[in-house]
Structure formats: C-alpha cells, structure tokens
Specification:
alpha/beta, 2 domains, RNaseH-like_sf, Integrase-like protein, Integrase_cat-core, RNaseH_sf, nucleic acid binding
Length: 171
C-alpha cells in the first residue's frame, strides 16, 4: 500500500498530505490517513519545505521593561469549587515588579470582567488619578475576552495599548 501512496503522490505533486489522503481514499477506495501519507512521504524524502517562512516567538521580549507600570500582564485562572462550579480569577500583574496589582473572582470570562479588573488596577496604581504620558501596555493571550471589540474600545478610551502573546508561548 505504501508503494501505491508514493506513486499517487508522484503523480499529484501539487497536493498536500491531507489532500493526498482524501483523494487517494476517494479514488482507490482504500482509507489512508493524513499522518500515514505524511510519514510515508517523509520516509522517502518526498516532503518539501514549506514555501513560507515560519515565524517563531522570541525567547524574551525585544523591549524589556525597566520600571513599574510599563507593561501589565493579564490572564484568567480556572478554579473549580466542588459543589459550586467553575470560577475564574482575573489578575493584572506588573511585568517589572511581578506584583499582582489587582484581581477579581468572576463567574464568567467576559470582556467586562477584564475591564473591571483593569479599572481596579488603574485605581490601585494611581494611573487614572494623575496625568500620565504613557499608560501601561497590556499583554494578554488570545482568549475571546481579550480579542473582543469591547475590550479594544475600552483600552482605546483609556489610552492603553494592547499586545497579545503567541499561542503556547509564556511571553
């Protein structure tokens, strides 16, 4: 069967392993998985490099923080309370000092919960009480509450910038 997959791949050079698996299954009436096609082609040096450059996240920030209130990190922590259900701890952490500026225990993970926690952080840090040229930049993951339009609008109103980290990368 591997020889048939290889011959099929040599005839259909434009197809990806996924497309090869589907087309092979349709035409040959024999199921072969994408991973099997990939492993077979790779073992015979028939997998080419992608035609694009893969960008990887850096090991550390290009512009490290040098003082407090330059960069705040935020995330939700899931907490399961037996007999009560799930709760979500929203936190704002100062990147430079590693101090938790504010936190809020929430029953949901909405943009409103993030903005409430940010309001507490702005109040606790004093950033909302005096005129500041550069408000803290917010670093978050790509969760739905962080990519929402409501949060983007709120941050714009407050004069804060927002950065999102790469998936599965701690920074």
């Amino acid at each position: 069967m591997k020889r048939k997959v290889i011959n099929f791949a040599l005839k259909e050079t434009e197809l990806s392993p996924c497309e090869l698996a589907v087309t092979f299954t349709d035409q040959e009436r024999y199921f072969v998985s994408e991973s099997t096609v990939y492993r077979t082609l790779k073992a015979h040096d028939l997998i080419t490099s992608p035609a694009f450059i893969v960008l990887k996240a850096a090991n550390e920030f290009e512009h490290k923080t040098t003082a407090i209130n330059q960069l705040w990190q935020t995330d939700f922590t899931y907490l399961k309370v037996l007999g009560w259900g799930w709760f979500y701890l929203s936190t704002i952490l100062d990147d430079y000092s590693r101090y938790i500026i504010s936190w809020k225990l929430c029953t949901n993970m909405r943009a409103e919960d993030v903005t409430d926690t940010l309001d507490l952080a702005l109040q606790a840090s004093g950033c909302d009480q005096v005129h500041i040229v550069h408000k803290p930049r917010l670093l978050s993951d790509n969760g739905s509450s962080y990519v929402s339009g409501d949060l983007a609008e709120w941050l714009q109103d407050k004069g804060m910038k927002h950065s999102r980290g790469a998936p599965y990368h701690p920074q």
